[in-house]
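Supplementary Text 2. Reproducibility record for the structural model of the 771-residue chain.

All settings were left at their defaults, and a single model was retained for analysis rather than an ensemble. We include the record here because the model underlies the residue-level annotations in Supplementary Table 4.
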Amino acid sequence: MAGGSSGKLMRVVRKWRGPAARRGRPLSLAWIPAGTLVIVAVIWSAVFLRIQAERRETHDAAVAASVQLASAFAQHIDRTVHDADAAVRWVKYEYERSPSTFDLGTYQRQGLISADTALQVTLVGANGEVMQTTTPNAKQVNLADRPHFLIHQANADAGLYISQPVVGRVSNQWTLQFTRRLNHLDGSFAGVVVVSEDPDYLTNGFYNLEALGPGGMLALISDNGYLLSRRAGSQPASPAGPPASAYGEMVGAKGGVFDDPVDHVRRFVTHRHLSHYPVAVLVGLSEHDTLAGYQHTRTLYILMSSVITVVLLLSAGLITRMMGELLAGREEMRHLAGRMQNLAETDALTRLPNRYLLTETVRRQIGRDSPIDRLALLFIDLDNFKRINDALGHETGDELLQNVARRLAKVAGKERLLARVGGDEFVLVVDGMGASVRARNLAQSIVDAFELAFGLRGNSYVIRVSIGIAVYTDSDDAEYDLLRQADLAMYAAKGEGKPANMSRYRIYTPDLSTRAMRDIERQQELQYAILNGEFFLEYQPIVSLSTGEIRGVEALARWRHPEKGTVMPADFIPFAESTGFIVPIGELVLEQACAQFSEWQESDPRPLYLSVNVSAAQLVHGDLVRVVHRCLNQYMIDPRRLQLEITETAILEDSTAVTMRLKELRLSGVKVVLDDFGTGYSSLSQLTSLVIDGVKIDRSFTRGVPGDKAALATFNSIASLTRDLGLSLIVEGVETEQQASWLHRFGDIEAQGFYFSRPVAPADLRVGKAA
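Retained model, structure tokens:
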């Protein structure tokens, strides 16, 4: 019975779609060759335009690829130099702390210094003689003539110095030397610590060498005019090469095409200077490699156009001889009319029925006798399709939609109507007895089918789907009511499945409409709250555990609801983030906090700082950098006295864009602190990130001290690492004197919590030392 009813539905669709044929008069024979020539001209014009577009697209893609690779390579070099500098700083710190007991051999045997850290670590005395080195059986040499020794001897503030690649006198290998000055307790010159790295690792160690292609090039250039390392094509990396001046015309390039001064290969070149170190990178993609696909496509277009032209000219001749047959002309016109009708009801990309045909078909089904529980809709939506479309391009997105349509059609079968109703939205019509049960079975079959990955451009992607099911149970419902119900059920399924990265389906129930109305009301309440200024701030002091003085204050948002009273952040921030209202709310909070802080600056001479929480949505979708700069300028606040607290989810949300914005803020002097550390995807490796200045340990860890051994070990590790990395450390949730006393052992760290003060209004904020 089910199969027969489904077949009946499709017959209704086909009967409704039948073309309304119209008769027309045959064209004059003279128009046939003329029209053919016009078509040929249009085809070739379109082909040449397409070829030009393909070249532009290929060129733009090559430029974008070189820019992206340059950014990744710059980050790789930044991390490598940062790691080398960290090793230099560590050896310098340990040696200066106790010169008489410092022994490189001991640290090497303990595994604190290894080949993974550096090729060689050397201590050079004030006279230039090598005092200690990790190279076994090294001969005694004097390095007093080396540039790095002379620079550190003459300048106590030279900082990290990166040398020109040289053959080491101790290691007898090509080395790139990272050096810092050693000082006696009185600040006088005590020598130099040298960490030697293999210069080839700078390029060979890049994780994405395959993306360069066979003709790609990587180069690393020092601001001192030295070529530090270069790798091109399949050639091994080498520090030898022309001076940096040979690459002068490439400075500042972003995808420009240049002849390489070494192998004279034309490449798309991007130059990127590191923000923290005196080093620049060059990434070049071979023009021949990147345009190979375009050349193949160009040849294919011309060949296909030639074939089409010949076919059109031959066809024109045949049609001219056959135009005398009136019946053939009538059939052709009817065929054309039917085709036009079909186009009006068919989605151009997937060749599935479109929204118009779907709604007309459902309307006719509802108009039939007793469709109760004999008609159901499955509303199918792809999760995260926009991200795939933006990342891989619209052409790949269209290819994915075509593959999705084919897979859904295979599950639905030939006797059911499947339509594409939006960008990544599909609707499947189920009719016949027991439609609700069969709709659930079909939904589960679709979920199972999408466990198989889709192949796109040589890669595999698992696509998750959210499915809403609406069954016709109310005779007062129209086709749009049924579609709306399926849509609401789909969004409910998405809310359950998307956070877990799982496909889900959900059957419509009336409470979904109630929930949707409640969400609309909540959105209106938030909108009114923003317009009416119902948000206000309370402040909680941040205290130095070593002195007991207030170092800063954290601004905490509150909502003064006209009916519910004061609403805490946990009750409105998550909903504001999901609806996008967090962006204007965040701007209001920053504006109010800066205004209040400006008043405190005038009356309080202490160098307090202001800490404000920033949502991931503000970083990704808002104009946070502009808002911060405007508030700092308007209220004349030193950027160093503003601290922004971000969560780890904010960093993971859109790493490239977020990292760029955070770096821009930090360059202006604003501090960035990683909030709620330890509650999400925390790892100690994130503390070495180049985009944060400090860490705030979550209150869930503080509750365990000093009784919880795991919490104690965690505190010890984090405190030691943040101190070595030069990061600030804040502990929140300090509620007892015992906790404060135990935390005092870590030295000059900061804390906040009820033990010092609850969040209070600006007028009630305590002044002076905290109790």
